[in-house]
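Help! Submission page says 'invalid entity' but I think these are all valid:
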Amino acid sequence: MMFLRGIRAIWQREMLTFLREKPRIISAAINPIFWLLTFGAGLGSTVSIEGINYQQYIFPGIIIQTILFSSIFYGAYLVWDRRIDLLKAILVTPLSRSSIFFGKVISGITFALIQSFIILIFGFFININYTFTSFILVLLTITVSAAGLTALGLTIGSFMTSPEGFQLITTFVIFPLFFLSGALYPLDQLPAYLEALTAFNPLTYIVDLLRGLLIDLQYFGTNLNSLVMVGFAFVILFIGIKAFERMRS
Amino acid sequence: MAIIQTHNLTKVFDKKITAVKDLNIEINKGEIFGLLGPNGAGKTTIIKMFATLLAPTSGTAIVNGFDVIKQPSKVRESIGIVFQEPSSDELLTGYENIKLYAMMYGLPKSKIEERIYQALELVELKNRKDDLVKTYSGGMRRRLEIARSLIHKPLVLFLDEPTLGLDPAGREKMWAYISRLVKELEMTVLLTTHYMEEADTLANRVGIIDLGKIVVVDTPKALKDTLGGDLVTIESHDLETGKLEKLDYVTSVKQEKNDTILTIKNVSQNLQPLLKFIGNIDSVEVRRVTLNDVFLHFTGKRIQEDGGKNTFFEKLIQESASRR
Protein backbone atom coordinates (compact mmCIF):
# COMPACT_ATOMS: atom_id res chain seq x y z
CA MET A 1 0.00 0.00 0.00
CA MET A 2 2.79 2.37 0.99
CA PHE A 3 4.42 1.49 -2.33
CA LEU A 4 1.34 2.66 -4.27
CA ARG A 5 0.84 5.79 -2.17
CA GLY A 6 4.43 6.76 -2.84
CA ILE A 7 3.96 6.31 -6.56
CA ARG A 8 0.84 8.44 -6.38
CA ALA A 9 2.56 11.22 -4.46
CA ILE A 10 5.44 11.35 -6.95
CA TRP A 11 3.02 11.25 -9.89
CA GLN A 12 0.90 14.07 -8.46
CA ARG A 13 3.96 16.21 -7.93
CA GLU A 14 5.14 15.68 -11.51
CA MET A 15 1.69 16.41 -12.95
CA LEU A 16 1.28 19.62 -10.95
CA THR A 17 4.67 20.92 -12.05
CA PHE A 18 4.06 19.83 -15.65
CA LEU A 19 0.79 21.74 -15.85
CA ARG A 20 2.49 24.87 -14.54
CA GLU A 21 5.38 24.76 -16.98
CA LYS A 22 3.65 26.44 -19.88
CA PRO A 23 6.68 26.57 -22.22
CA ARG A 24 7.10 22.83 -21.88
CA ILE A 25 3.49 22.11 -22.81
CA ILE A 26 3.57 24.49 -25.76
CA SER A 27 6.78 23.13 -27.25
CA ALA A 28 5.65 19.57 -26.67
CA ALA A 29 2.48 20.21 -28.65
CA ILE A 30 3.92 22.38 -31.40
CA ASN A 31 7.20 20.61 -32.26
CA PRO A 32 5.74 17.44 -33.82
CA ILE A 33 3.10 19.34 -35.75
CA PHE A 34 5.82 21.64 -37.05
CA TRP A 35 7.76 18.61 -38.27
CA LEU A 36 4.75 17.21 -40.07
CA LEU A 37 3.78 20.52 -41.62
CA THR A 38 7.26 21.49 -42.82
CA PHE A 39 9.49 18.45 -43.25
CA GLY A 40 6.64 16.05 -43.94
CA ALA A 41 4.70 18.29 -46.29
CA GLY A 42 7.84 19.69 -47.92
CA LEU A 43 9.32 16.34 -48.88
CA GLY A 44 5.83 14.94 -49.33
CA SER A 45 5.20 17.30 -52.25
CA THR A 46 7.55 15.19 -54.37
CA VAL A 47 8.17 12.01 -52.38
CA SER A 48 5.87 9.11 -51.72
CA ILE A 49 6.83 5.70 -50.39
CA GLU A 50 5.03 2.60 -51.59
CA GLY A 51 2.17 4.77 -52.73
CA ILE A 52 1.87 6.53 -49.37
CA ASN A 53 2.39 10.24 -49.11
CA TYR A 54 5.62 11.05 -47.21
CA GLN A 55 3.81 13.17 -44.65
CA GLN A 56 1.68 10.18 -43.70
CA TYR A 57 4.66 7.87 -43.98
CA ILE A 58 6.63 9.66 -41.26
CA PHE A 59 3.58 10.22 -39.01
CA PRO A 60 4.31 7.15 -36.80
CA GLY A 61 8.00 8.11 -36.73
CA ILE A 62 7.14 11.62 -35.49
CA ILE A 63 5.10 10.16 -32.65
CA ILE A 64 8.10 8.07 -31.65
CA GLN A 65 10.39 11.07 -32.02
CA THR A 66 8.22 13.06 -29.65
CA ILE A 67 8.08 10.47 -26.92
CA LEU A 68 11.76 9.67 -27.44
CA PHE A 69 12.81 13.24 -26.74
CA SER A 70 10.35 13.93 -23.98
CA SER A 71 10.76 10.63 -22.11
CA ILE A 72 14.54 10.55 -22.17
CA PHE A 73 14.89 14.20 -21.23
CA TYR A 74 12.27 13.88 -18.53
CA GLY A 75 14.14 10.94 -17.04
CA ALA A 76 17.58 12.45 -17.35
CA TYR A 77 16.29 15.65 -15.75
CA LEU A 78 16.81 13.70 -12.54
CA VAL A 79 20.34 15.02 -12.54
CA TRP A 80 18.94 18.51 -11.84
CA ASP A 81 16.78 17.23 -9.04
CA ARG A 82 19.90 15.72 -7.57
CA ARG A 83 21.94 18.86 -8.04
CA ILE A 84 19.55 20.92 -5.99
CA ASP A 85 18.36 19.25 -2.83
CA LEU A 86 14.89 18.38 -4.12
CA LEU A 87 15.59 14.71 -4.61
CA LYS A 88 17.41 14.40 -1.29
CA ALA A 89 14.27 15.54 0.50
CA ILE A 90 12.38 12.67 -1.14
CA LEU A 91 15.15 10.17 -0.50
CA VAL A 92 15.04 10.81 3.27
CA THR A 93 11.37 9.83 3.40
CA PRO A 94 10.67 6.15 4.11
CA LEU A 95 9.57 5.64 0.48
CA SER A 96 11.40 2.83 -1.23
CA ARG A 97 13.63 3.71 -4.13
CA SER A 98 11.58 1.55 -6.44
CA SER A 99 8.36 3.40 -5.65
CA ILE A 100 10.11 6.70 -6.47
CA PHE A 101 11.38 5.12 -9.68
CA PHE A 102 7.97 3.83 -10.73
CA GLY A 103 6.35 7.12 -9.82
CA LYS A 104 8.71 8.77 -12.28
CA VAL A 105 8.16 6.11 -14.96
CA ILE A 106 4.39 6.45 -14.73
CA SER A 107 4.72 10.22 -14.95
CA GLY A 108 6.87 9.80 -18.08
CA ILE A 109 4.18 7.56 -19.58
CA THR A 110 1.48 10.10 -18.80
CA PHE A 111 3.39 12.92 -20.50
CA ALA A 112 3.98 10.69 -23.54
CA LEU A 113 0.28 9.83 -23.74
CA ILE A 114 -0.80 13.47 -23.47
CA GLN A 115 1.61 14.53 -26.22
CA SER A 116 0.79 11.60 -28.49
CA PHE A 117 -2.88 12.31 -28.08
CA ILE A 118 -2.38 15.81 -29.50
CA ILE A 119 -0.45 14.40 -32.47
CA LEU A 120 -3.03 11.69 -33.05
CA ILE A 121 -5.77 14.29 -33.21
CA PHE A 122 -3.70 16.19 -35.75
CA GLY A 123 -3.55 12.92 -37.69
CA PHE A 124 -7.20 13.40 -38.66
CA PHE A 125 -6.21 16.45 -40.68
CA ILE A 126 -3.65 14.54 -42.74
CA ASN A 127 -6.03 11.68 -43.43
CA ILE A 128 -4.80 9.01 -41.05
CA ASN A 129 -7.54 6.42 -40.68
CA TYR A 130 -8.12 5.11 -37.18
CA THR A 131 -10.29 2.30 -35.98
CA PHE A 132 -11.20 1.97 -32.34
CA THR A 133 -8.92 -1.06 -32.01
CA SER A 134 -5.99 0.54 -33.79
CA PHE A 135 -6.31 3.64 -31.61
CA ILE A 136 -6.23 1.59 -28.41
CA LEU A 137 -3.30 -0.49 -29.67
CA VAL A 138 -1.39 2.67 -30.61
CA LEU A 139 -1.86 4.03 -27.08
CA LEU A 140 -0.72 0.71 -25.65
CA THR A 141 2.40 0.76 -27.83
CA ILE A 142 3.14 4.31 -26.69
CA THR A 143 2.68 3.29 -23.04
CA VAL A 144 5.13 0.42 -23.25
CA SER A 145 7.73 2.34 -25.26
CA ALA A 146 7.48 5.41 -23.03
CA ALA A 147 8.06 3.19 -19.97
CA GLY A 148 11.27 1.87 -21.53
CA LEU A 149 12.46 5.27 -22.73
CA THR A 150 11.73 7.04 -19.44
CA ALA A 151 13.60 4.28 -17.62
CA LEU A 152 16.49 4.81 -20.05
CA GLY A 153 16.47 8.53 -19.23
CA LEU A 154 16.35 7.85 -15.49
CA THR A 155 19.24 5.42 -15.81
CA ILE A 156 21.30 8.06 -17.60
CA GLY A 157 20.25 10.70 -15.07
CA SER A 158 21.24 8.51 -12.14
CA PHE A 159 24.71 7.95 -13.57
CA MET A 160 25.36 11.56 -14.52
CA THR A 161 27.14 13.65 -11.93
CA SER A 162 26.42 17.10 -13.33
CA PRO A 163 24.09 18.68 -15.88
CA GLU A 164 27.06 19.69 -18.03
CA GLY A 165 26.87 16.49 -20.03
CA PHE A 166 23.24 17.04 -20.93
CA GLN A 167 23.90 17.98 -24.55
CA LEU A 168 25.77 14.73 -25.05
CA ILE A 169 22.56 12.81 -24.46
CA THR A 170 21.13 14.32 -27.61
CA THR A 171 24.25 13.54 -29.60
CA PHE A 172 24.98 10.06 -28.41
CA VAL A 173 21.62 8.64 -27.37
CA ILE A 174 18.64 10.41 -28.89
CA PHE A 175 19.93 11.17 -32.39
CA PRO A 176 21.35 7.69 -33.05
CA LEU A 177 18.18 6.06 -31.72
CA PHE A 178 16.00 8.30 -33.86
CA PHE A 179 17.91 8.45 -37.13
CA LEU A 180 18.70 4.74 -37.11
CA SER A 181 15.11 3.71 -36.47
CA GLY A 182 13.65 4.00 -39.95
CA ALA A 183 11.34 6.73 -38.64
CA LEU A 184 12.16 8.83 -41.70
CA TYR A 185 12.98 6.21 -44.36
CA PRO A 186 11.97 2.71 -45.44
CA LEU A 187 14.08 -0.25 -44.29
CA ASP A 188 14.32 -2.17 -47.55
CA GLN A 189 17.17 -1.32 -49.90
CA LEU A 190 19.33 0.22 -47.16
CA PRO A 191 23.12 0.13 -47.51
CA ALA A 192 24.59 -2.76 -45.50
CA TYR A 193 25.92 -0.67 -42.59
CA LEU A 194 22.60 1.09 -42.09
CA GLU A 195 20.73 -2.16 -42.32
CA ALA A 196 22.92 -3.64 -39.59
CA LEU A 197 22.63 -0.60 -37.33
CA THR A 198 18.87 -0.27 -37.67
CA ALA A 199 18.46 -3.97 -36.95
CA PHE A 200 20.15 -3.46 -33.58
CA ASN A 201 17.97 -0.51 -32.64
CA PRO A 202 14.88 -1.48 -30.64
CA LEU A 203 13.14 1.69 -31.81
CA THR A 204 13.18 0.31 -35.38
CA TYR A 205 10.70 -2.36 -34.33
CA ILE A 206 8.54 0.07 -32.36
CA VAL A 207 8.32 2.45 -35.33
CA ASP A 208 7.49 -0.50 -37.56
CA LEU A 209 4.78 -1.66 -35.16
CA LEU A 210 3.20 1.80 -35.07
CA ARG A 211 3.41 2.12 -38.84
CA GLY A 212 1.53 -1.14 -39.18
CA LEU A 213 -1.18 0.10 -36.84
CA LEU A 214 -1.50 3.59 -38.29
CA ILE A 215 -0.90 3.30 -42.05
CA ASP A 216 -1.01 -0.45 -42.54
CA LEU A 217 2.58 -0.74 -43.76
CA GLN A 218 4.92 -3.07 -41.94
CA TYR A 219 8.39 -4.47 -42.67
CA PHE A 220 8.81 -7.02 -39.86
CA GLY A 221 6.14 -9.26 -38.36
CA THR A 222 3.87 -7.93 -35.62
CA ASN A 223 5.03 -10.65 -33.24
CA LEU A 224 8.70 -9.80 -33.64
CA ASN A 225 7.98 -6.09 -33.24
CA SER A 226 5.91 -6.56 -30.08
CA LEU A 227 8.42 -8.97 -28.61
CA VAL A 228 11.34 -6.57 -29.13
CA MET A 229 9.34 -3.67 -27.69
CA VAL A 230 8.24 -5.50 -24.54
CA GLY A 231 11.69 -7.05 -24.11
CA PHE A 232 13.34 -3.64 -24.44
CA ALA A 233 10.99 -2.10 -21.88
CA PHE A 234 11.51 -4.88 -19.34
CA VAL A 235 15.28 -4.96 -19.66
CA ILE A 236 15.62 -1.17 -19.31
CA LEU A 237 13.17 -1.03 -16.40
CA PHE A 238 15.20 -3.68 -14.64
CA ILE A 239 18.47 -1.84 -15.28
CA GLY A 240 16.82 1.42 -14.26
CA ILE A 241 15.69 0.13 -10.86
CA LYS A 242 19.16 -1.21 -10.17
CA ALA A 243 20.73 2.09 -11.20
CA PHE A 244 18.26 3.98 -9.02
CA GLU A 245 19.00 1.84 -6.01
CA ARG A 246 22.75 2.25 -6.23
CA MET A 247 22.46 5.99 -6.89
CA ARG A 248 23.88 8.26 -4.20
CA SER A 249 22.13 11.52 -3.55
CA MET B 1 19.23 9.23 27.43
CA ALA B 2 21.07 9.35 24.12
CA ILE B 3 18.94 9.46 21.00
CA ILE B 4 21.93 9.66 18.66
CA GLN B 5 25.09 7.74 19.32
CA THR B 6 28.11 7.17 17.14
CA HIS B 7 31.13 4.96 17.44
CA ASN B 8 34.24 5.89 15.45
CA LEU B 9 32.08 7.19 12.62
CA THR B 10 34.31 7.96 9.64
CA LYS B 11 33.72 9.15 6.11
CA VAL B 12 36.44 9.18 3.48
CA PHE B 13 35.70 10.45 -0.03
CA ASP B 14 37.54 8.93 -2.97
CA LYS B 15 39.88 7.05 -0.62
CA LYS B 16 41.82 10.21 0.10
CA ILE B 17 39.71 13.05 1.49
CA THR B 18 38.76 12.39 5.09
CA ALA B 19 35.68 14.48 5.78
CA VAL B 20 34.82 12.97 9.17
CA LYS B 21 37.26 11.08 11.35
CA ASP B 22 36.50 8.76 14.28
CA LEU B 23 33.47 10.66 15.50
CA ASN B 24 32.22 9.60 18.91
CA ILE B 25 29.28 11.62 20.06
CA GLU B 26 26.13 11.27 22.15
CA ILE B 27 23.15 13.53 21.65
CA ASN B 28 20.56 13.45 24.39
CA LYS B 29 16.84 13.27 23.98
CA GLY B 30 15.19 16.69 24.01
CA GLU B 31 18.29 18.82 23.65
CA ILE B 32 19.36 21.23 20.96
CA PHE B 33 22.83 20.19 19.97
CA GLY B 34 24.89 22.55 17.85
CA LEU B 35 27.72 21.42 15.62
CA LEU B 36 29.87 24.49 15.26
CA GLY B 37 32.66 24.71 12.77
CA PRO B 38 33.87 26.41 9.60
CA ASN B 39 32.74 25.39 6.13
CA GLY B 40 34.35 22.16 5.10
CA ALA B 41 34.69 20.96 8.69
CA GLY B 42 32.49 17.95 7.98
CA LYS B 43 29.20 19.10 9.55
CA THR B 44 27.01 18.39 6.54
CA THR B 45 28.69 15.06 5.95
CA ILE B 46 27.83 14.03 9.52
CA ILE B 47 24.18 15.02 9.09
CA LYS B 48 23.98 13.20 5.76
CA MET B 49 25.26 10.03 7.39
CA PHE B 50 22.71 10.37 10.21
CA ALA B 51 19.97 10.93 7.62
CA THR B 52 20.98 7.79 5.64
CA LEU B 53 21.94 9.82 2.57
CA LEU B 54 25.61 8.91 2.77
CA ALA B 55 27.03 5.56 3.80
CA PRO B 56 29.79 5.79 6.41
CA THR B 57 33.19 4.46 5.38
CA SER B 58 33.58 2.87 8.81
CA GLY B 59 32.14 3.07 12.30
CA THR B 60 28.49 3.10 13.35
CA ALA B 61 25.73 5.59 14.03
CA ILE B 62 22.54 4.81 15.93
CA VAL B 63 19.57 7.16 15.58
CA ASN B 64 16.54 6.60 17.80
CA GLY B 65 17.81 3.09 18.47
CA PHE B 66 18.21 2.18 14.79
CA ASP B 67 21.41 1.59 12.88
CA VAL B 68 21.76 3.98 9.92
CA ILE B 69 23.31 1.28 7.77
CA LYS B 70 21.17 -1.72 8.68
CA GLN B 71 17.78 -0.08 9.33
CA PRO B 72 17.67 2.98 7.08
CA SER B 73 13.90 3.09 6.68
CA LYS B 74 13.36 2.96 10.47
CA VAL B 75 15.81 5.84 10.80
CA ARG B 76 14.01 7.79 8.07
CA GLU B 77 10.71 7.44 9.90
CA SER B 78 12.31 8.89 13.03
CA ILE B 79 13.89 11.97 11.49
CA GLY B 80 13.06 15.24 9.79
CA ILE B 81 15.63 17.28 7.95
CA VAL B 82 16.01 20.76 6.52
CA PHE B 83 18.83 20.99 4.03
CA GLN B 84 21.23 23.84 3.50
CA GLU B 85 20.02 24.43 -0.04
CA PRO B 86 16.35 25.03 -0.84
CA SER B 87 14.58 21.73 -1.41
CA SER B 88 10.97 22.71 -1.92
CA ASP B 89 9.23 22.66 -5.27
CA GLU B 90 9.03 26.16 -6.70
CA LEU B 91 6.14 25.36 -8.97
CA LEU B 92 3.98 24.03 -6.17
CA THR B 93 2.21 26.02 -3.50
CA GLY B 94 3.33 25.82 0.11
CA TYR B 95 0.31 23.67 0.89
CA GLU B 96 0.95 21.27 -2.00
CA ASN B 97 4.59 20.89 -1.04
CA ILE B 98 3.68 19.79 2.45
CA LYS B 99 0.76 17.63 1.37
CA LEU B 100 2.90 15.58 -1.01
CA TYR B 101 5.40 14.88 1.75
CA ALA B 102 2.61 13.92 4.11
CA MET B 103 1.58 11.36 1.49
CA MET B 104 5.13 10.10 1.14
CA TYR B 105 5.30 9.53 4.87
CA GLY B 106 2.10 7.52 4.65
CA LEU B 107 0.06 9.66 7.04
CA PRO B 108 -3.57 8.52 7.25
CA LYS B 109 -5.89 10.60 5.08
CA SER B 110 -8.04 11.60 8.02
CA LYS B 111 -5.09 13.25 9.72
CA ILE B 112 -3.31 14.87 6.79
CA GLU B 113 -5.25 18.15 6.63
CA GLU B 114 -5.10 18.76 10.35
CA ARG B 115 -1.37 18.14 10.46
CA ILE B 116 -0.67 20.40 7.50
CA TYR B 117 -2.53 23.27 9.13
CA GLN B 118 -0.79 22.72 12.45
CA ALA B 119 2.60 22.77 10.76
CA LEU B 120 1.78 25.83 8.66
CA GLU B 121 0.47 27.65 11.69
CA LEU B 122 3.60 26.92 13.66
CA VAL B 123 5.77 28.65 11.06
CA GLU B 124 3.17 31.36 10.38
CA LEU B 125 2.67 30.58 6.72
CA LYS B 126 -1.01 29.78 6.80
CA ASN B 127 -2.02 32.93 4.96
CA ARG B 128 0.46 32.23 2.15
CA LYS B 129 -0.29 28.54 1.79
CA ASP B 130 -1.87 28.83 -1.67
CA ASP B 131 0.92 30.89 -3.22
CA LEU B 132 3.56 29.27 -5.38
CA VAL B 133 6.82 28.76 -3.48
CA LYS B 134 8.71 30.74 -6.09
CA THR B 135 7.03 33.87 -4.71
CA TYR B 136 8.36 33.18 -1.19
CA SER B 137 11.35 34.93 0.35
CA GLY B 138 14.38 32.96 1.47
CA GLY B 139 13.23 32.99 5.08
CA MET B 140 9.72 31.86 4.20
CA ARG B 141 11.07 28.96 2.18
CA ARG B 142 13.22 27.86 5.06
CA ARG B 143 10.20 28.05 7.35
CA LEU B 144 8.11 26.05 4.89
CA GLU B 145 10.79 23.41 4.83
CA ILE B 146 10.79 23.30 8.60
CA ALA B 147 7.01 22.82 8.53
CA ARG B 148 7.47 20.07 5.96
CA SER B 149 10.11 18.31 8.02
CA LEU B 150 7.73 18.26 11.02
CA ILE B 151 4.75 16.76 9.23
CA HIS B 152 5.32 13.19 10.44
CA LYS B 153 6.23 14.32 13.97
CA PRO B 154 9.84 13.15 13.91
CA LEU B 155 11.73 12.60 17.14
CA VAL B 156 14.90 14.11 15.76
CA LEU B 157 15.16 17.16 13.57
CA PHE B 158 18.30 17.96 11.59
CA LEU B 159 18.83 21.57 10.61
CA ASP B 160 21.79 22.11 8.31
CA GLU B 161 22.80 25.77 8.56
CA PRO B 162 19.20 26.89 9.19
CA THR B 163 19.91 30.60 8.83
CA LEU B 164 22.45 30.57 6.02
CA GLY B 165 21.66 33.35 3.59
CA LEU B 166 19.09 35.05 5.82
CA ASP B 167 19.39 38.67 6.86
CA PRO B 168 19.87 39.47 10.58
CA ALA B 169 16.14 40.04 11.18
CA GLY B 170 15.24 36.81 9.40
CA ARG B 171 17.87 35.01 11.40
CA GLU B 172 16.48 36.12 14.74
CA LYS B 173 12.98 35.18 13.68
CA MET B 174 14.20 31.74 12.68
CA TRP B 175 15.85 31.30 16.07
CA ALA B 176 12.55 32.09 17.74
CA TYR B 177 10.75 29.48 15.61
CA ILE B 178 13.33 26.84 16.36
CA SER B 179 13.26 27.31 20.12
CA ARG B 180 9.48 27.42 20.06
CA LEU B 181 9.06 24.16 18.21
CA VAL B 182 11.50 22.39 20.44
CA LYS B 183 9.49 23.50 23.44
CA GLU B 184 6.09 22.70 21.92
CA LEU B 185 6.94 19.43 20.20
CA GLU B 186 9.59 18.12 22.60
CA MET B 187 11.97 17.23 19.85
CA THR B 188 15.69 16.69 19.72
CA VAL B 189 17.41 19.07 17.34
CA LEU B 190 20.82 18.69 15.79
CA LEU B 191 21.82 21.87 14.03
CA THR B 192 24.98 22.76 12.20
CA THR B 193 26.17 26.30 11.96
CA HIS B 194 29.22 28.39 11.42
CA TYR B 195 27.62 31.35 13.19
CA MET B 196 28.93 31.63 16.75
CA GLU B 197 25.96 33.61 17.94
CA GLU B 198 23.54 31.03 16.60
CA ALA B 199 25.18 28.19 18.48
CA ASP B 200 25.37 30.34 21.61
CA THR B 201 21.70 31.40 21.48
CA LEU B 202 20.08 28.14 20.46
CA ALA B 203 22.15 25.18 21.56
CA ASN B 204 22.05 23.51 24.96
CA ARG B 205 25.33 21.88 24.08
CA VAL B 206 27.86 22.72 21.42
CA GLY B 207 30.34 20.45 19.71
CA ILE B 208 33.22 22.32 18.15
CA ILE B 209 34.32 20.62 14.98
CA ASP B 210 37.35 21.26 12.84
CA LEU B 211 38.85 19.25 9.97
CA GLY B 212 36.43 16.37 10.48
CA LYS B 213 37.07 15.97 14.19
CA ILE B 214 35.12 16.99 17.27
CA VAL B 215 37.50 19.05 19.34
CA VAL B 216 35.37 19.64 22.41
CA VAL B 217 31.74 19.26 23.54
CA ASP B 218 30.04 21.22 26.32
CA THR B 219 27.43 23.82 27.13
CA PRO B 220 28.18 27.25 25.64
CA LYS B 221 28.68 28.64 29.15
CA ALA B 222 31.09 25.93 30.21
CA LEU B 223 33.02 26.36 26.98
CA LYS B 224 33.37 30.06 27.57
CA ASP B 225 34.33 29.44 31.18
CA THR B 226 37.26 27.28 30.09
CA LEU B 227 38.94 30.47 28.98
CA GLY B 228 38.85 31.64 32.59
CA GLY B 229 37.04 34.95 32.47
CA ASP B 230 36.55 37.89 30.19
CA LEU B 231 38.98 39.74 27.99
CA VAL B 232 40.60 43.05 28.78
CA THR B 233 42.76 44.60 26.09
CA ILE B 234 45.12 47.26 27.32
CA GLU B 235 47.38 49.64 25.47
CA SER B 236 50.04 51.12 27.70
CA HIS B 237 53.70 52.10 27.36
CA ASP B 238 55.00 51.07 30.72
CA LEU B 239 53.36 47.71 31.20
CA GLU B 240 55.23 44.91 32.92
CA THR B 241 53.52 41.71 31.93
CA GLY B 242 55.46 39.67 34.41
CA LYS B 243 53.86 41.46 37.31
CA LEU B 244 50.39 41.13 35.84
CA GLU B 245 50.67 37.37 35.62
CA LYS B 246 51.11 37.17 39.37
CA LEU B 247 47.74 38.78 40.14
CA ASP B 248 45.35 36.08 41.34
CA TYR B 249 42.41 37.22 39.18
CA VAL B 250 44.42 37.21 35.94
CA THR B 251 44.26 33.86 34.18
CA SER B 252 46.33 34.64 31.11
CA VAL B 253 48.40 37.38 29.51
CA LYS B 254 49.05 37.67 25.81
CA GLN B 255 50.93 40.28 23.82
CA GLU B 256 49.62 41.33 20.41
CA LYS B 257 51.69 44.17 18.92
CA ASN B 258 51.13 47.18 21.24
CA ASP B 259 48.16 45.54 22.92
CA THR B 260 48.24 43.36 25.97
CA ILE B 261 45.31 41.01 26.19
CA LEU B 262 44.42 39.79 29.67
CA THR B 263 41.87 37.21 30.69
CA ILE B 264 40.26 38.29 33.93
CA LYS B 265 38.04 36.39 36.33
CA ASN B 266 34.93 38.18 37.49
CA VAL B 267 35.56 41.31 35.47
CA SER B 268 32.93 43.50 37.15
CA GLN B 269 34.73 43.22 40.47
CA ASN B 270 38.32 43.08 39.36
CA LEU B 271 38.52 45.69 36.61
CA GLN B 272 38.87 48.64 38.96
CA PRO B 273 41.77 47.20 40.99
CA LEU B 274 43.47 46.07 37.78
CA LEU B 275 43.40 49.52 36.21
CA LYS B 276 44.67 51.04 39.45
CA PHE B 277 47.47 48.48 39.54
CA ILE B 278 48.62 49.27 35.99
CA GLY B 279 48.41 53.01 36.41
CA ASN B 280 49.28 54.78 33.17
CA ILE B 281 46.94 53.55 30.39
CA ASP B 282 46.46 54.79 26.82
CA SER B 283 43.35 52.76 26.09
CA VAL B 284 41.33 49.89 27.50
CA GLU B 285 38.68 47.63 26.05
CA VAL B 286 36.61 45.07 27.93
CA ARG B 287 34.88 42.28 26.09
CA ARG B 288 32.87 39.20 27.09
CA VAL B 289 34.31 35.90 25.89
CA THR B 290 32.44 34.57 22.85
CA LEU B 291 32.42 31.15 21.25
CA ASN B 292 34.72 32.67 18.68
CA ASP B 293 37.40 32.99 21.37
CA VAL B 294 36.63 29.45 22.43
CA PHE B 295 37.03 28.25 18.88
CA LEU B 296 40.31 30.11 18.57
CA HIS B 297 41.46 28.67 21.87
CA PHE B 298 40.80 25.06 20.86
CA THR B 299 41.70 25.09 17.19
CA GLY B 300 44.22 27.89 16.97
CA LYS B 301 42.22 29.68 14.27
CA ARG B 302 39.19 31.87 13.77
CA ILE B 303 35.98 30.86 12.08
CA GLN B 304 35.29 32.92 9.02
CA GLU B 305 31.67 33.85 9.32
CA ASP B 306 31.48 35.18 5.82
CA GLY B 307 33.39 34.59 2.65
CA GLY B 308 34.56 31.29 3.98
CA LYS B 309 32.45 29.40 1.49
CA ASN B 310 34.01 27.71 -1.47
CA THR B 311 37.42 27.35 -0.01
CA PHE B 312 39.54 24.87 -1.86
CA PHE B 313 38.91 22.13 0.67
CA GLU B 314 35.18 22.74 0.67
CA LYS B 315 35.12 22.46 -3.10
CA LEU B 316 37.06 19.23 -3.05
CA ILE B 317 34.58 17.73 -0.61
CA GLN B 318 31.57 18.91 -2.54
CA GLU B 319 32.99 17.65 -5.80
CA SER B 320 33.75 14.21 -4.51
CA ALA B 321 30.46 14.08 -2.62
CA SER B 322 28.51 14.80 -5.77
CA ARG B 323 30.46 12.16 -7.62
CA ARG B 324 29.26 9.36 -5.35
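Support: the input was valid. A stray whitespace character was the problem, and the output above is from the cleaned input. The longest helix of chain B spans residues 168-185.
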